[in-house]
Amino acid sequence: MVRAPFYDKNGLKKGAWSVEEDNKLRSYIQRFGHWNWRELPKFAGLSRCGKSCRLRWLNYLQPNVKRGNYTEEEEFMIIKLHEELGNKWSMIAASLPGRSDNDIKNHWHAHLKKRTMKNPTALKMKMLSNEAYQHDADIARKTETDSSVSNSPSFQIQESSQLPQETSSSDFSYLSFDNAPLSGINWTTEDSLATLETLEQSFSDFWTEPFILDNTYVQNNYPESLADGGFSASQSCYNEGIDSIYEAMQEVENYQRINEDPYLVN
DNA sequence: AAAGGCGCCAACCGCAGTGTC
DNA sequence: TGACACTGCGGTTGGCGCCTT
Predict the structure, then answer these.
(1) What's the burial of A78, exposed, middle or buried (CB within 10 Å: 0-12/13-18/19+)?
(2) pTM exceeds cut of 0.70
(3) Domains of chain A
């Protein structure tokens, strides 16, 4: 599965990471943080280049890294965001907590790309139906009172999470573009709730994370100008993605609602 | 049972953007 | 302001494991 370990001409180790190396890197970063990737391997006692350490940490060793078993919401988000952002894997990853850009990229090439290529119209149709539904829903919402708590997205999300399992799983079939059922996914009420909470969290994180006083995170993910309240090219780049991510969040909410009402989509 | 092909994923590589001197 | 260093991103590759023949 992984490349056999070997040493390059500079004496740097390449290829698969050993458990011992993982432990060294993990314990060093947990203790001291990653202040300088280039220098880090020397201090951590690793014969690796900084890049390799960084990649290993981000894609594998970070405590919050989620592995395998993509939920259908995650897949939907990836498909939707990829349609709007293209191969901006880091942007897509920003809206999927615990998933690395590399992981998402691999999942796209291994699974989702084939599905969308096999039946692109099915995806497009679904997108359009969601947009149409969103439009109707917006109009309906405007007719109701603004003070109603039940109109808040979080309330609706919680409502939809109370759905019986059968209803939820059957209505996700459009994601399976070759008409084969999605395998390995057990859509449960708990999953639904957890995923939606995750999505809410992710959207919330998108706004709040730049201001978290975790110097590691700020140093590596956001330009200082953001924390300073200034403006930069990088900020505009982030802003560019916000709309798409927000739209994708709405799409996910939409099909949760659709699942709630079996008469909306057939 | 063995061989070959394919899928998947960890890891590498090169380039671009940003920061620092 | 230009050169250099560092970091992050996206494309690509190597190779293990599973599946098919």
Answers:
(1) buried
(2) no
(3) 6-61 (1.10.10.60), 72-260 (no CATH)
